[in-house]
Amino acid sequence: MRIVLLGPPGSGKGTQAKVLTERLKVPQISTGDMLRAAVAAGTSLGREAKAVMERGALVPDAVIVGLVRERIAQTDCRTGYILDGFPRTAAQAEALDTMLRELQTPLDSVLSLTVPAEEVVERIAGRRTCRGCGRMYHIRYSPTKEAGRCDACGGETYQRDDDGEETVRRRMQVYTEQTAPLEAHYERQGLLRRVPGTGRIGEITEHLLQTLGV
Ligand code: AP5
């Protein structure tokens, strides 16, 4: 099962990808998580990505395509994967098409989560992430039991550096200009399925699974 999850910042791609990996037994490939790990580790990629991410801009296509190419070659991706946050530009989508053609492993589905802009802003403003295990919370919709502590591992929860109001506005603009047009790209390939990303997290997961026919 090879899936792309599309959707604006805060539409729930990461939340749904984490649940779907358990249900479908395939790994989540989140380019955002990979970049944040590189930033935390202080690698040269991390140093390059940090400033770009804090501006709400996109990391260069060649860097991202290289990361994904390496990741999907790993053995745990043989049975499939969920791409979360990739592709994000026409060049990335074309590079993915070429990569998958060469590997003879076509995509099964592209699921696009649709959420109104005002809800997305509220979700991002309230998002908290665990520094330890990466689990995601929302101060209103899915709060931690103890303030600032992850329910799963007890790690500290924090607000992402790129979740400030101005950066979020820029990320939304970048999404509209560069990523939303990919819906048409995948519609032409007959792969696009739009799924409402509003409502309860579990209901959205069931809708996604139904759409995938599993
Ligand atoms: P990335 O990490 O991919 O960020 P994003 O696409 O902007 O998406 P988010 O992580 O903000 O949101 P999400 O859709 O995953 O929502 P979530 O599940 O967290 O990228 C960050 C940056 O890295 C980019 O700006 C760019 O600089 C760089 N980058 C990454 N990939 C790149 C690429 N391919 N090319 C170039 N640069 C790249 O949910 C949000 C909140 O809502 C959470 O608090 C959650 O608990 C809550 N929530 C979720 N579902 C619901 C629900 N149904 N009801 C109520 N609350 C909900």
Description of the structure:
With 214 residues, the chain is an alpha/beta fold. It has a domain at 2-115 and 180-212: Rossmann fold. The mean pLDDT is 95. It is globular, with a radius of gyration of 17 Å. The strands form 2 sheets. A 5-stranded parallel sheet has the order 2-3-1-4-8, sandwiched between helices. Strands 6-5-7 form a 3-stranded antiparallel sheet. The relative contact order is 0.19. β5 and β6 form a beta hairpin. Helices cover 49% and strands 15% of the residues. The protein has 9 helices and 8 strands. α1 packs across α9, α2 crosses α3 (44-55) and α4 (61-72) packs parallel to α5. The chain binds BIS(adenosine)-5'-pentaphosphate. Residues 7, 9-15, 31-32, 35, 52-53, 56-59, 64, 85-86, 88, 92, 123-124, 126-127, 136-138, 141-142, 162, 171, 201, 204 line the site of BIS(adenosine)-5'-pentaphosphate.
Short description:
By secondary structure, the protein is an alpha/beta fold.
Classify the secondary structure makeup into a structural class: alpha/beta
Architecture per CATH nomenclature, i.e. the level-2 architecture of the domain at 2-115 and 180-212? 3-Layer(aba) Sandwich
> Which compounds are bound in this model?
BIS(adenosine)-5'-pentaphosphate
The residue-averaged pLDDT reads 95
Helix amount = 40-55%
Q: The CATH topology of the domain at 2-115 and 180-212, please? A: Rossmann fold
What gap, in angstroms, lies between the N and C termini?
10 Å
**SSE arrangement, N to C:** EHEHHHEHEHEEEHHEH
Pick out the low-confidence regions: none
Shape: globular
Q: What would you give as the CATH superfamily of the domain at 2-115 and 180-212?
A: P-loop containing nucleotide triphosphate hydrolases
The Cα radius of gyration reads 17 Å
Largest sheet: 5 strands, parallel
Please count the beta strands (DSSP E, at least 2 residues each): 8
Number of discrete helical segments? 9
CATH class of the domain at 2-115 and 180-212: Alpha Beta
Question: Assembly type of the shown chains?
Answer: single chain
- Relative strand content: 5-15%
Strand order of the largest sheet: 2-3-1-4-8
